[in-house]
Design brief:
globular; six-stranded antiparallel β-sheet; 136 residues; alpha+beta; 6 strands
Length: 136
Amino acid sequence: MVPGAEAFFGEVRAAFAGPARRLALEGPSQTADRHLAVVTYTGADVRYKAVLGLWAGDVEIHVCRDTEATECKVGVEKLARAAGVGGAASFGARSLRQLRKSLTSQVRYVELVHPLVTVELMRAAGAREWSRPLVR
Protein backbone atom coordinates (compact mmCIF):
# COMPACT_ATOMS: atom_id res chain seq x y z
CA MET A 1 0.00 0.00 0.00
CA VAL A 2 1.29 3.46 -0.93
CA PRO A 3 2.17 5.53 2.15
CA GLY A 4 -0.21 8.41 2.80
CA ALA A 5 0.59 12.10 2.50
CA GLU A 6 1.40 12.59 6.19
CA ALA A 7 3.87 9.69 6.22
CA PHE A 8 5.40 11.02 3.00
CA PHE A 9 5.79 14.52 4.47
CA GLY A 10 7.64 13.08 7.49
CA GLU A 11 9.93 10.93 5.36
CA VAL A 12 10.84 13.84 3.06
CA ARG A 13 11.60 16.07 6.06
CA ALA A 14 13.87 13.35 7.47
CA ALA A 15 15.63 12.73 4.14
CA PHE A 16 16.20 16.46 3.51
CA ALA A 17 17.14 17.44 7.10
CA GLY A 18 20.93 17.39 6.66
CA PRO A 19 21.08 18.36 2.97
CA ALA A 20 18.67 21.28 3.46
CA ARG A 21 20.90 22.66 6.21
CA ARG A 22 24.12 22.13 4.23
CA LEU A 23 22.68 23.62 1.02
CA ALA A 24 20.88 26.50 2.79
CA LEU A 25 17.48 25.42 1.48
CA GLU A 26 14.32 26.90 2.93
CA GLY A 27 11.27 24.79 3.64
CA PRO A 28 9.53 22.56 3.60
CA SER A 29 6.22 23.69 2.18
CA GLN A 30 3.68 20.91 1.72
CA THR A 31 0.56 20.36 -0.39
CA ALA A 32 -1.59 17.34 -1.15
CA ASP A 33 -4.70 16.41 -3.08
CA ARG A 34 -6.27 13.07 -4.04
CA HIS A 35 -3.53 12.27 -6.56
CA LEU A 36 -0.28 13.89 -5.42
CA ALA A 37 1.60 14.93 -2.32
CA VAL A 38 4.32 17.56 -2.82
CA VAL A 39 7.07 18.84 -0.53
CA THR A 40 9.10 21.82 -1.74
CA TYR A 41 12.49 23.11 -0.62
CA THR A 42 13.75 26.39 -2.05
CA GLY A 43 17.28 27.67 -2.55
CA ALA A 44 18.82 30.56 -4.41
CA ASP A 45 17.31 30.38 -7.92
CA VAL A 46 16.22 26.73 -7.59
CA ARG A 47 13.34 24.68 -6.12
CA TYR A 48 13.34 20.98 -5.32
CA LYS A 49 9.90 19.37 -5.35
CA ALA A 50 9.53 15.86 -3.96
CA VAL A 51 6.35 14.50 -5.57
CA LEU A 52 4.57 11.33 -4.45
CA GLY A 53 2.01 9.77 -6.80
CA LEU A 54 -0.55 8.57 -4.27
CA TRP A 55 -2.15 6.15 -6.73
CA ALA A 56 0.86 5.14 -8.81
CA GLY A 57 3.14 4.60 -5.82
CA ASP A 58 6.15 6.43 -7.18
CA VAL A 59 8.25 9.36 -6.00
CA GLU A 60 10.40 11.79 -7.96
CA ILE A 61 12.31 14.92 -7.04
CA HIS A 62 11.91 17.67 -9.64
CA VAL A 63 14.45 20.45 -10.01
CA CYS A 64 12.75 23.72 -10.99
CA ARG A 65 14.29 27.01 -12.00
CA ASP A 66 12.80 30.23 -13.35
CA THR A 67 14.34 32.41 -16.02
CA GLU A 68 13.13 35.86 -16.97
CA ALA A 69 10.46 34.46 -19.29
CA THR A 70 10.23 30.71 -18.64
CA GLU A 71 10.11 28.01 -16.00
CA CYS A 72 12.27 24.87 -16.41
CA LYS A 73 11.61 21.55 -14.70
CA VAL A 74 13.51 18.24 -14.85
CA GLY A 75 13.85 15.13 -12.70
CA VAL A 76 16.92 15.10 -10.46
CA GLU A 77 18.10 11.75 -11.88
CA LYS A 78 18.14 13.09 -15.45
CA LEU A 79 19.95 16.20 -14.26
CA ALA A 80 22.56 14.13 -12.41
CA ARG A 81 23.17 12.03 -15.52
CA ALA A 82 23.55 15.13 -17.71
CA ALA A 83 26.03 16.54 -15.17
CA GLY A 84 27.98 13.28 -15.15
CA VAL A 85 27.48 12.67 -11.43
CA GLY A 86 24.71 10.10 -11.35
CA GLY A 87 23.56 6.71 -12.47
CA ALA A 88 20.19 5.17 -11.71
CA ALA A 89 17.93 6.36 -8.92
CA SER A 90 15.11 4.46 -7.29
CA PHE A 91 11.51 5.71 -7.75
CA GLY A 92 9.34 3.10 -6.01
CA ALA A 93 7.12 4.19 -3.13
CA ARG A 94 4.65 1.37 -2.62
CA SER A 95 5.89 0.87 0.94
CA LEU A 96 7.73 2.96 3.52
CA ARG A 97 10.86 0.91 2.84
CA GLN A 98 10.73 1.64 -0.91
CA LEU A 99 9.92 5.29 -0.24
CA ARG A 100 12.93 5.70 2.06
CA LYS A 101 15.25 4.00 -0.44
CA SER A 102 13.99 6.19 -3.29
CA LEU A 103 14.24 9.40 -1.29
CA THR A 104 17.76 8.54 -0.10
CA SER A 105 19.03 7.97 -3.65
CA GLN A 106 17.34 11.05 -5.09
CA VAL A 107 18.29 13.41 -2.24
CA ARG A 108 21.90 12.32 -2.74
CA TYR A 109 21.60 13.53 -6.33
CA VAL A 110 20.20 16.85 -5.05
CA GLU A 111 23.41 17.31 -3.07
CA LEU A 112 25.57 16.43 -6.07
CA VAL A 113 23.82 18.62 -8.64
CA HIS A 114 22.99 21.63 -6.45
CA PRO A 115 26.22 23.55 -7.17
CA LEU A 116 25.93 22.67 -10.88
CA VAL A 117 22.31 23.64 -11.64
CA THR A 118 21.99 25.99 -14.59
CA VAL A 119 19.21 26.42 -17.11
CA GLU A 120 21.62 25.20 -19.81
CA LEU A 121 22.33 21.97 -17.90
CA MET A 122 18.63 21.51 -17.29
CA ARG A 123 17.94 21.89 -21.01
CA ALA A 124 20.71 19.39 -21.80
CA ALA A 125 18.97 16.96 -19.43
CA GLY A 126 15.71 17.32 -21.36
CA ALA A 127 13.91 19.74 -19.05
CA ARG A 128 10.36 20.74 -19.80
CA GLU A 129 10.16 24.47 -20.27
CA TRP A 130 7.19 26.76 -20.63
CA SER A 131 6.50 30.47 -20.69
CA ARG A 132 5.63 32.17 -17.45
CA PRO A 133 2.83 34.74 -17.39
CA LEU A 134 4.09 38.29 -17.65
CA VAL A 135 3.67 40.31 -14.47
CA ARG A 136 2.66 43.89 -15.10
